[in-house]
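dude i think i finally got it to work??
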Amino acid sequence: MWEEFRARLEETWNEPWRPLGLSAFGSVLGLFLLVAIVEARGTERWVPILDDVNLIFHESGHPVFGLLGWETLAILGGTLMQLLVPLLVSGSFWWKRQAVGFGFGLFWCFQNLHNIARYMADARAGLLPLVGGGDHDWTELFIRWGCLGNDTAIAGTVAFLGWAGMLAATLWLGFRWWRTRVTL
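look at this
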């Protein structure tokens, strides 16, 4: 079974990406730009619809990872699920060699880092409203890991990684579009 999977993985790795047209590239580029503007300029930095979906995945991650029986993993499960879902979406499109879906999944994953960073930065302040009014995930985690006093510094690094990843996903998609034009 593993040999078959490995062989299929090698085969997929060597398959060419499907061509990426200008209209698809332009549409996704416009969406990426809109999300980036809302992230950069908004006071709350909440991207409607996208971040609502991210919150649903975050909240569902707690019970899903909680099933594994390790309390720290249950607390971290929200953040893990928030990243895992876009990565699975991206992986599915990678497997199909569809550049727009793959690039969107990566962009979405890195965009999630902004939410996570905002949540991390709130660990000491505790100003963000919490779903269900429970404990603050990152306060709990930072206390366990002995780094609560570094919450804003860690959040700054995570936010930077989010911007860098969003830019990288956009550039990769631009590269795929350019490669389509060059090879036609």
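The longest helix spans residues 151-183.
im so relieved honestly
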